[in-house]
Design a protein that fits this description.
Blueprint (H helix, E strand, L loop, with lengths): L1 H19 L1 H9 L9 H6 L2 E4 L8 E4 L9 E5 L13 H6 L3 E5 L13 H19 L3 E6 L1 H12 L6 E5 L5 H8 L5 H4 L6 H4 L6 E7 L7 H10 L5 E6 L13 H11 L9
Parallel strand pairs: 3-4, 3-5, 5-6, 6-7, 7-8
Antiparallel strand pairs: 1-2, 2-4
Helix pairs in contact: 5-6
């Protein structure tokens, strides 16, 4: 018995340590919060303003100047690195296509208060979406990028606001599936406190879904995007594969035509491009 314990004991205590520290380990891999709140000069240089600013808090960024929005509003949830301000590159192609864009910011990112995690992120996203619908009405779309895909699908599942369509860029099927492929020898399902189950979250969604994968995605291997796509309902999905692109450099491997195609597929109005 003593010999068996000596062989199994260290592994047992390692497992317990991993289990107890699972949340911290998960958060270190998933979240990279920062206090870099965009300053007035930074915003002015990018023609952006804080959206839904209340006291010292705000909910995101949007265009400083009025734009024609015949196609509605897109609430965009960004990836886990950087902030909403770093996603200003979405503004020009999407506004040219006739969309108002809200670059939603997460708790603990961009100088916002709060906590990181699936529950606080989705709860915050639900409130942002509610306010966007209350202020702008229909049609309302969700766009998720990387980690933001998990937030967007969680919002789609939980919101009472009508969501006309969803765009997912570099998405995955479930967080457990991704973690298992990266750490095949760890009991990842027991260590993860966040689920981000995009397949489950989208089971009941009735609108169109655009899925965009990066062929050489080194962070979220493309097989997870294919797995998600296969699970989506037939007749309301379409997938684009960006050839030669990695997880972070995909914008350099495409052009405005991709934005037109992925928005056209979900767009319930399909009006001409704004000059």
């Amino acid at each position: 018995m003593k010999t068996i314990f000596l062989k199994i004991g260290p592994l047992f205590f390692l497992f317990i340590a991993l289990l107890l520290g699972g949340c911290n380990m998960q958060n270190k891999f998933l979240y990279f919060p920062n206090d870099d709140r965009p300053t007035a000069p930074m915003l002015a240089a990018e023609n952006l303003v804080l959206w839904q600013e209340t006291g010292s808090d705000y909910r995101g960024l949007t265009a400083a100047s009025e734009v024609l929005v015949p196609n509605g509003t897109i609430v965009l949830f960004h990836g886990n690195g950087g902030t909403a301000f770093d996603r200003g590159f979405y503004m020009e192609p999407l506004t040219r296509l006739g969309f108002r864009v809200i670059l939603a910011e997460y708790p603990k990112y961009g100088g916002r208060p709060g906590k990181v995690g699936e529950k606080p992120f989705v709860a915050d996203g639900l409130e942002t979406t509610r306010l966007a619908y209350e202020q702008y009405g229909e049609p309302l779309y969700l766009l998720g990028e990387s980690l933001g895909c998990g937030v967007a699908t969680g919002v789609a599942k939980g919101t009472s606001a009508p969501i006309a369509g969803i765009i997912l860029i570099t998405p995955w099927d479930t967080l457990a599936s991704v973690a298992k492929s990266l750490f095949p020898f760890l009991p990842v399902s027991m260590l993860l406190t966040d689920k981000y189950d995009n397949m489950e979250n989208l089971k009941a969604f009735k609108g169109n879904i655009s899925v965009v994968g990066a062929e050489r995605d080194e962070i979220l291997p493309i097989k997870h995007a294919h797995s998600l796509y296969a699970a989506l309902p037939e007749g309301q999905k379409r997938m684009w594969l960006i050839k030669g692109a990695g997880h972070n450099d995909w914008p350099f491997h495409t052009d405005a035509s991709l934005f037109r195609e992925i928005t056209d597929f979900v767009n319930v109005r399909k009006t001409p491009e704004v000059p």
